[in-house]
């Protein structure tokens, strides 16, 4: 059956446009993945003379609206499958396809039929991911049911899909170590951080005469990471005054003993809102999903010269030199002690912020990675 489908799909091959590069995203604007891992690079490629565009299946707002309805997951699966199939068809003339994360989300049925179809249509396929998607999906832990067998559900879909790509773009060294053994070619890869703009200097200005503002930015899906340390923040507030700023896409009612100010996330006002924070937090749980994170919020804080405190997990320990350009929390029960120490070091905030900015500017900005990225893309197009 698979061989028959392969033969049938081969008839759909189209003459390739030699310089056409297409990104296939799951979520559209203003999601960070779309902006930082697809849109920016697609715009750069166009500026360099390539034909490039980004196709996405749904916005995050549309996703939330669908999932709130009765049978929301089924509606989501049908809508995204139909749109993705159309996108796969209309982009069949592209010389290079870059798939972000997965072709389909919440849909592991069909025995990887889309990956197989794309493999038949394209000479060069790349997958780009900056999370441990296998861990997030709990691959291999799902119970097999009669329905899953009838629907040809793959319980290791993400990991198995890597075999259909010619090259991989990993968000971190950790992800490369975890998944390169399953890739077709361990040598055809790029480790690319989720980048930010280089602002030329630390934009954060520390004056030292206001109440300390501790803050966190993230999606409502990841709120549990910061909520996990709220009880410790309440203990901290008994020792020292501070205001907490929560920047999130969803208005959430959270009762705390410390002052909490909610700011609805906005792409246009993101930098302005982040600059209100004196100490940016990135707490994580100690699990495989957290270890696969690419530390984007930490990179955002530090790129602006904001003093940051993060869980000592994988990439966070690569970015932060504890006490020099930020602070690490080795024990998740010790946030009070670490933050108390950081607040008492307020006179050093400007110096720490300068060092944080320099760390990001040298390694985690678009400018710092542009030449490497363009070289990698050229190699994939030429087959070098």
Structure description:
This protein has 384 residues and is of the alpha/beta class. It folds into 2 domains: 2-195 and 366-382, 3-Layer(aba) Sandwich (Rossmann fold), CATH 3.40.50.2000; 213-363, Glycogen Phosphorylase B (Rossmann fold), CATH 3.40.50. Helices cover 42% and strands 17% of the residues. It contains 18 helices and 12 strands. It has helices at 2-10, 32-47, 60-67, 72-90, 113-121, 133-136, 146-150, 157-161, 173-179, 223-227, 230-239, 270-274, 288-291, 296-303, 315-319, 335-344, 349-363, 366-382; strands at 17-27, 51-58, 94-100, 125-129, 167-170, 189-191, 213-218, 243-248, 260-264, 279-282, 307-311, 327-329. The strands form 2 sheets. The chain has a 6-stranded parallel beta sheet. A 6-stranded parallel beta sheet has the order 9-8-7-10-11-12, sandwiched between helices. Helix 2 (32-47) links the parallel strand 1 (17-27) and strand 2 (51-58). Helix 1 runs parallel beside helix 5. The chain starts with a helix and ends with a helix. The mean pLDDT is 92.
